[in-house]
Amino acid sequence: MLLRRVIHLLLVMLVAAAECRAEEALPVPVLVTHLETQPLPPLKPEAHEAESNRTRAEMFAVAEQLRKQHGDKTNAWPPEVWKLFYVAEDAHTLTVARRDYEPPETRLGLADSAEDFVRGAGANKAMTMVTGADEASLVVQIIGRRRASASGPTDNRYFIRFRLVPGAKMTGARFLELTQGYKWDNLWSKVIAHPKDASGYFELEAGSPASYKNCAGMVRAIVEGFIRARLDPATKK
Asked: Taking the complete model, does pTM exceed 0.90, yes or no?
């Protein structure tokens, strides 16, 4: 009797796992929306600089300590060690983001960028746009936009801050599994904050030298790149 129950439980688990993977088959259902976040109290420029210097120094100190404990080959660090570094790194990147996204105008036009993302995704084979979080495996939340001066014509001038969140069709644990070790940082995107647990999300920033519309396309390309790297059956994981 006990053996029969164990076999039944294993069959249920296998079916559930198969259903989970079936929901992840391309195209992945994605909801794109905008989210108005509560701004933090404004700081004077010297306060921003002091806080940035403090968190940068703490980040370097943590990195040095972790190297002493776990070696200079960071590729060999286990996820638990990286989590310790991410706490310090996120404290610094969030400090910089607080300064960059403090002006009120950075919270304008968010819905426009969400619409630009969706408008350009019509022929996308990696994802399909849905209108509710209960239908989505992934949710993209546009939370900020900013423009900055650039020294060269190919340097990024337009930036969109966004969050990548698991939808109802993806558990937080599965989201963490898929994002583990994925490289977000490149010339057009960077991580602002990592998820600390299964209820978390990635906060990222995309950049473009051209326009906010083009930058929304970069956000879409970042999400598509992640989907193809982690969920496309044709891609070796």
From this structure: no
